[in-house]
Fold this sequence. Notes:
- It is a single chain.
- The protein is mainly alpha-helical.
- The chain has two domains: 16-139 and 226-252, no CATH class; 145-213.
- The chain has helices at 16-19, 22-38, 44-60, 65-71, 76-88, 103-129, 132-141, 146-175, 186-213, 230-252, and strands at residues 93-96, 99-102.
- It has a two-stranded antiparallel ribbon.
Amino acid sequence: MGAGHSHKLYRHGHSPVHALPPHCKIAAVFCFVLVVVSTPREAVWAFGLYAVLIAAAAGAARVPAGFLLKRLLIEVPFVAFAVLMPFVAEGPRVDVIGLSLSESGLWGAWNILAKGTLGVAASVLLAATTELRELLLGLQRLRMPPQLVQIASFMIRYGDVITDEMRRMRIARLSRGFEARGVRHWGILAKSAGALFIRSYERGERVHLAMVSRGYTGTMPVIADTTATRAQWTRAAALPVAALAVCLLGWTL
Length: 253
């Protein structure tokens, strides 16, 4: 976890949210998602308030609405699944614009859409205000198993290496006049995937030997100790605490 590694979800800025320690933001988002999931699906107004809280956090982080909405498209497969639920679920039926839909399916679709969208929005906001290296340091600070942190670190660091290897192999195929146009070319693409796997595996072995030769014993050193003050924890807790108040109202009203 040496040098910084930027990613497309990150939006550089100097907002109060950017300035918070990464482990504070991770804990806040995790608690917020837990509260949202615990909210009864019948409390429709509560999810509207959660959306307002997310919008307020995005405003404090100076993250434009377009940036946030564009990256919410990642949940499109879940939206498609939720849309099908009213048609395939069993139970009492209701008529909606001439269609016979399952009442339980409608509630299930709403539950998935509302909670899933809010969870994805909170995660996108976290990624937009925290660099990947800081996220790993935050997980390390939160006492996540070191092996998982190392796996995530290596995956991030060498993901671009593998992508670049794929790009070079594609250029090599194009330079030889190859262009996949049908099923008959799937065999060549499969061989390319196999070759990429072998190259990646061999590269991983070389990297591991290089690390062992430099004293690697299975654990990565902590290169930064990002402590948080009480004021920073208080600011980070504002989102989940406000969401908890909404959740309690949703269960009592």
